Amino acid sequence: MAGGVRTAAETEVNRKARKAGIASFVGTTVEWYDFYIYGTASALVFGQVFFSSTLDPGVATLLSFITLWAGFLARPLGGIIFGHFGDKLGRKTTLVTTLLLMGVASVGVGLLPGYAQIGIWAPILLTLLRIVQGLAVGGEWGGAVLVASENAPKNKGILYSAFAQQGSPAGNLLSTFVFFLLAQMPTPDFIMYGWRIAFLASAILIVIGLVIRLTLEESDQMKAVKAANKESKLPLREVLVKYWPLVLLGAGALPLVQVTYFKNTFALAWATEDLGFERSAFLGVIAIALVVQFIVQPFGALLVQNMDMRKAITLLVVPEFVLMPLMFFAIQTGSFWVAVIGMSLATIPHAMFYAAIGGILARVFPARIRYTGLSLSYQLCSMVVAGGTPALAQWIVNSTGSIVGVAIASAAYAAVSLVCTLILLQKTGWRADQPSVAEQADIDELEALRESEAVKDGEAPSAPAAEPSGLSESAAASMRN
After folding, report:
1. Which residue has the higher pLDDT, 3 or 392?
2. For this UniProt entry, which segments traverse the membrane (predicted)?
3. Stretch 270-275: mean pLDDT, rounded?
4. For domain 2-443, which CATH number applies: 1.10.10.10, 1.20.1250.20, 3.40.50.410, 3.40.630.10?
């Protein structure tokens, strides 16, 4: 009988885990599609559409990349705002809100008149809409990772968090595919209205994402926090006062994730404007590399889940020191297939690292402030590193006339990520099959609360008491796991 009960409970946990994983994947795919189409459009058309035609093309592209950066500057604010509500009200409501916000901003970009129609208001409004996108994705990522990891079966949080991470290459691939098709249009038509189709189509994707996300169940760990009345009064203050070293280390672990903007944004502009690649041809290079990323990425989470995480991370990151710089020289040959091989090989290490890092960072913070801490770490790196990456690379090329400096910068990203991740694991725990320091603290706090409630009810502390404060069995089990 007991065995049957355990089997039924395990079946329910696995069902919820799969549902949460799929919902996280679909939602993040839609969010990242919207976020990435802006990057592609900023490399291909925004300099021509939203800035004065009297500007040098390289300067116009640089200004376009600066509007791209505005979204990244807004992401920490989005992480703070939605992290607060995610830790106070729950993950589901917050994720529905971020999806709606992203949809409104993307459709707005698709309808926005250009510089020829409204002058200086064109880049101003474009920047404002990009900021709204940044706020939305700033709140999205942390919640999606937590919904997947917090609902995962015991000791499989890193593996299930990869569902949310898989939305990034899927959204990126979808955005690249859409622009690949649109780029077949005659150039004047593409510049005039073709690129707008990619943004207006996001309205359909948002509806699909909302239908799936509205059926999402709250994570069991969040239910446990709320049932025990353990919500943080001001999550941001608690994170900054008690956990700021972990936030900085978490942000320092993530530059390797942001090398995607060397590839998919800067390299697209560089290859088509300076090296003579056709738009559709280089979008094809990016699309093939994204297919490679989508296929190999989950294996990174699998590797980290099943071995000493310090060794796994080292194995994943070290090859990038060589492969990312080599990618630029492969593109510089002007050969389509050499560029494909170079970009595909450079994609493998950082894609596998990306699959695991969300789950690793989710283990760093206690459940009551986890959304805020996780989001703040990720979005700080995005603000400082990701958004500035295309602008930095373009500035290096404009200043030196050489790609060498860009290659060196890309290797430096990997070095920073490796050092910070290893220090973080040393502080929080490096065994995926065991609770982290923060998770163990949650378990201890829950057990202390259970014993306290048992004493109040006149029971022996060791007796199997009812769940305190309305805590469900599944929520309590989730906290213990």
Report:
1. 392
2. 59-82, 94-112, 118-137, 158-183, 195-216, 243-261, 281-304, 313-331, 337-364, 376-397, 403-425
3. 90
4. 1.20.1250.20
